Amino acid sequence: MEINGVIIEDTFAEAFPIWVSRILVTAATERLAKIAATEATGFGCSVIMCPAEAGIEKYVPPTETPDGRPGYIIQICHPKKSELEHQMLERIGQCILTAPTTAAFDAMGDEAEEQLKVGFKLKFFGDGYEKKDKLGDRTIYRIPIMSGEFITESKFGVKKGVAGGNFFILAENQTAALVAAEAAVDAISSVDGVITPFPGGIVASGSKVGASNPKYKFMTATTNHKMCPTLRDVVEDSEVPEDVNGIYEIVIDGISEEAVKEAMKVGILAATKVPGVKKITAGNYGGKLGKYQIKLHDLFE
Amino acid sequence: MEINGVIIEDTFAEAFPIWVSRILVTAATERLAKIAATEATGFGCSVIMCPAEAGIEKYVPPTETPDGRPGYIIQICHPKKSELEHQMLERIGQCILTAPTTAAFDAMGDEAEEQLKVGFKLKFFGDGYEKKDKLGDRTIYRIPIMSGEFITESKFGVKKGVAGGNFFILAENQTAALVAAEAAVDAISSVDGVITPFPGGIVASGSKVGASNPKYKFMTATTNHKMCPTLRDVVEDSEVPEDVNGIYEIVIDGISEEAVKEAMKVGILAATKVPGVKKITAGNYGGKLGKYQIKLHDLFE
Amino acid sequence: MEINGVIIEDTFAEAFPIWVSRILVTAATERLAKIAATEATGFGCSVIMCPAEAGIEKYVPPTETPDGRPGYIIQICHPKKSELEHQMLERIGQCILTAPTTAAFDAMGDEAEEQLKVGFKLKFFGDGYEKKDKLGDRTIYRIPIMSGEFITESKFGVKKGVAGGNFFILAENQTAALVAAEAAVDAISSVDGVITPFPGGIVASGSKVGASNPKYKFMTATTNHKMCPTLRDVVEDSEVPEDVNGIYEIVIDGISEEAVKEAMKVGILAATKVPGVKKITAGNYGGKLGKYQIKLHDLFE
Amino acid sequence: MEINGVIIEDTFAEAFPIWVSRILVTAATERLAKIAATEATGFGCSVIMCPAEAGIEKYVPPTETPDGRPGYIIQICHPKKSELEHQMLERIGQCILTAPTTAAFDAMGDEAEEQLKVGFKLKFFGDGYEKKDKLGDRTIYRIPIMSGEFITESKFGVKKGVAGGNFFILAENQTAALVAAEAAVDAISSVDGVITPFPGGIVASGSKVGASNPKYKFMTATTNHKMCPTLRDVVEDSEVPEDVNGIYEIVIDGISEEAVKEAMKVGILAATKVPGVKKITAGNYGGKLGKYQIKLHDLFE
Q: What residues form the membrane-spanning segments (chains A, B, C, D) (predicted)?
């Protein structure tokens, strides 16, 4: 299959279940909301070594938020529900409660499979001076803080979502792959329900499970040597085409397989529009590890 | 003491020793370096609940970096040296190695008290295909990745620095305190050797050790109720002046007491220039907990 | 009338007809589109002294643009249609054609009252090497440039819109008025069909027609002395309330009176949510100069 | 000559005299200063069709500004001194005076060859309520405005500088040339005394004087067809190498030939570090039009 002259390989992305939370961070201005959202989702690329996977999903204008202020929906994700709750407490408590003029609301809504009492636990920061209240239908806590008052919803919904949706952008050089990756991330950012948790949404250093080097067996993940352009003539099992010198990967987490599929579709389309892109493929483990297999060709039927 | 009509209270900030690393993150462009630096320093406000304290110290132009590309110096800090090394591995490995076009160099230089072999450990990601090399006087590793090559210095210097330098900005309303806090952070950003690890450099919700509410004794930190404007007429021990309705705190970590002092000085000066600011004070524990006592009045002698 | 405790004065904003163009600037990435949109709309606050009134209206995701790339809709406005065409030629020709990876499309669509042949005139830059083509239903020109190819639609629709929709935010100090103004601009940015052409969308120095000082009669506009807080006790006709020390104005241009009204409504609502805001009013000339009179109270019926 | 494997052509950039002003725009915060600086320098790429050439030169920390607030130095340039004064009046009056919390100071200092009474003329906006004052050695006016007070220095120094310093980046594709151009602009931004006036500092559509097409003789400038990759096999006089598919130009204005040379040097060096860049050349008119001839090879001796 070709799209805009770019080969779409007949393969699939292998993805995994993950617990997902969606938190709406509002603030006095869009800029202040973004500061909090950025801090709260930092150090959140992959649970291989980060304590959570996290990212900014989308902007919500003040006309559509519970408190009439601008906000960003962020996702915090973790394979274990108990760890997710822990991460939500820490990230909301340390990165949103501490940020200027913010409030935190549940944004999972009716999609939630379970409710975590994260706001209920955060309220203890109020030292007994906090107040339980209602904002529309939402149960909230008003916590007195030095700059005024922090509002958090009492419960935050979580659900089983999908982690590790992905595709690879192969291009004639690094910069073409990079600009295509940025274009893909831009396109994905307009899809509801998904995040691209890596820095700027882009993975520069895709990995494989374990190590091929017998001396490095202690490593749980090492560089995807088959896809490293500088190793094309060094390793026997290179899969880097002759005309490819730069590869970036996009990794997508989301609240559902449908959302992740839509993100992959618009992301791939966007990437194929950048001159110099040669091929799109995806990462999988032969179907042995992940629950979800998202075939690239199916996205465009 | 008054500066620009703002009262500077005769008190001191109580600060603590912390292990500090300084890492230079370079990239093809300033913007790409900032993406990596931001991700790597996220979720890094306070070790009360974050896994590290981290922030961007300053921009370094391409004419002054080892690889002639633009970069940002970040600091990652932790009270325990072993935990700092762990955090450096995770944050460089997950947030810089994975970010487009980056490289990581030691920026502590001669100030270092010890060297951590962080790059040496990161190299195992190369699965044996990495190469040891020299860049000027620096020992580096060249690790093949999907987008090209990641360069990391082998060792990163660390030293005992200072955490928790701080001051409080009291203003007639929340917005005046906020703009003053932003002005303070802007001023501090031009001081070498320091970071302001909270979101946007600002703390909206300063805390005290433990809880005053007997039912909340399980909490290690709760809201600084004496400094909450909404509790002025509620608690008996309020220290919020009558004309104050918003308070933000600035927290500073740095490589030395001198650097933190300089940051406090220029930050306080900047804050006093914003209309509506009434008073500057600082947080301490009566001198019982911290090694460092930085007197506000001494800063301006 | 009071909203969120803020007085809404019973007055009206007086606005004027203006010719409006809506241009969609696309680029390889959202960031590159914004660079071009920002340059093209700069030096475009008020036709009192700027050559046009211009601003960024909104972001358009790649799934909704003619070329499948992200873009921004900008508006360029001028009271005279011939001058508008001139400005469009100059701003597209110098600030979009010259910007990396951009294309320019009409975004007025069916709302247009007239078509200006701006793309047709820009094509001459191609020195005869340009090609006429179709992109969907749109007639475009492909102009060869050093970095590749610039695409511009042949014709751009214009219509009579509304300039000078406005409201004033009066607050207890400058920073409260400023943050409220920023919140207003954030809210307005989600309304289709409008721009806020001043720097950051905010007017710090509202003016009156002419001068009251007999020696300054040569001035076409001077400071709105009745609304200057520092002149409250200096001038006899001050209209600054006792508890007000900072005032910002928001000025709105748009494709229709309805769009401008909606912008004023959501902007005022947002401003009233910021602590310290006391009153909202609007600027008019007693109804003598402008075609449109937008009553503040009518917005909230 | 080769640098980092990139051919540096043995040619020269041809540059022109221009009148240059340097204005320091300060504000309550760095962000607010940048908003004003951006608006004031917009629509300011080339005097071919823009009313001025303008750009942001550099950030100045609050410790180094006359009012102790953060600021940006901008340059506004025009071949005619009278037109420059006109542009300064309009851009300061409409884009800085109107922007939140700003002040405007001369930043040309002792380098000035003449003083323009721009602040003196702006003061009339005060309608007689303005006050002449001193700030250190500087003569300033305090103009009452709705948001508080605007401070402008009375006189602004101007001098004969250099416009049109330039180089071309030829790369194997558009994205490599683009990222190299961004890297060049980043490097140049750390050189004192220069601006890169085009959008994002980059020219996507370099031009030649006049037209080669006999039917287009009315055009003063058309596409540089010899350097258009898509015309390589179309025109007889193409100068695009076989392996080049994207070319961006960097244009530099500055206060002196030395400053422009330094900018060209660091910019070219930065560009050569981006993979995929093949060649650096420069634009000239055979030495017939410009006063300055800056030889590329001389920069690296």
A: none
pLDDT at A289 over 90: no
The per-residue pLDDT of chain D, averaged, comes to 97
Distance (Å, whole) CA C265 – CA C276? 19
Q: A213 φ, ψ to 5°?
A: -70, 120
Interface test with A, best of B102, B120, B127, B217 (most A CBs within 10 A): B127
The type of residue at C68 is G
- Identify the domain boundary among D139, D159, D179: D159
Half-sphere exposure of D16 (CA within 13 A, CB side): 18
CB atoms C129 and D234 under 8 Å: yes
Whether C242 and C182 map to the same domain: the answer is: yes
Please report the DSSP string for D6-51 in residue order.
EEE-S-EEEEEEEEEEEEEEE-SSHHHHHHHHHHHHSS-S-TTTSS
For residues D232-240, give the mean pLDDT: 97
Contact between chains at B175 and C245 (C-beta distance less than 8 A): no
Q: Which of B107, B126, B159 is the last residue of a domain?
A: B159
The label of the residue with tokens 């907990």 reads B289
Query: How many inter-chain contacts (A to C, CB under 8 Å) are there?
Result: 74
Strand, coil or helix: B245: coil
The answer to whether the CB atoms of D249 and C146 lie below 8 A apart is yes
Residues A227, A277, single domain; the answer is yes
Token pair, residue A270, equals 């966007």
Chain C with chain D: Cβ pairs closer than 8 A:
283
Phi, then psi, of A134 in degrees rounded to 5: -120, 140
B174-188 and B257-272 helices cross at what angle (nearest 10)?
Answer: 140
Amino acid at A270: A
Number of domains composing chain C:
2
Residue D275, chain A, CB below 8 Å: the answer is: yes
Identify the band that residue A155 occupies on the pLDDT scale cut at 50, 70 and 90: very high
**Which of D173, D272, D273, D277 to probe the A interface (max A CBs under 10 A)?**
D173
- The answer on A273 and A168 residing in a single domain is yes
Contacts of A273 in chain C (CB under 8 A): 28, 67-69
Query: Which chain C residues have a beta carbon less than 8 Å from that of A182?
Result: 28-29, 31
How far is Cα C156 from Cα C89, in angstroms, rounded to an integer? Answer: 11
Residue C289: pLDDT over 90: no
Distance of CA B267 to the CA centre of its chain: 14
Distance CA D126, CA D108 (A): 25
Q: Are residues B149 and B171 in the same domain?
A: no
| DSSP assignment letter at A115 | E
pLDDT of residue B256: 98
Enumerate residue ranges in chain B where pLDDT < 50. none
Residue C22 and residue C86: Cα distance in Å, rounded? 15
Give the residue numbers spanning the domain of A166. 2-14+161-300
Residue in B31, B169, B170, B173 to test binding to C, most C beta-carbons within 10 Å: B173
C229 plus C285 within the same structural domain: yes
Check which CATH number belongs to the domain holding D235 and give it. Answer: 3.30.70.520
Which candidate, A82, A116, A68, A74, places its Cα nearest to that of A99?
A74
In chain A, whose CA is at the least distance from the CA of D181? A175
pLDDT, position B123: 97
pLDDT digits (tens, 9 = 90+) for D20-36: 999 999 999 999 999 99
In this structure, the answer to whether residues B146 and B181 fall within a common structural domain is no
Same domain, A274 and A178: yes
Mention every residue, 6+ apart, whose C-beta is less than 8 A from residue D43: C39, C40, C41, C42, C43, C44, C51, C90, C91, C94, C95, D50, D51
Name residues 47-86 of chain C within 8 A of D (Cβ): 48-51
Same domain, B26 and B145: yes
Q: What residues contact D275, with CB distance under 8 A and at least 6 apart?
A: A173, A174, A175, A245, A246, B148, D176
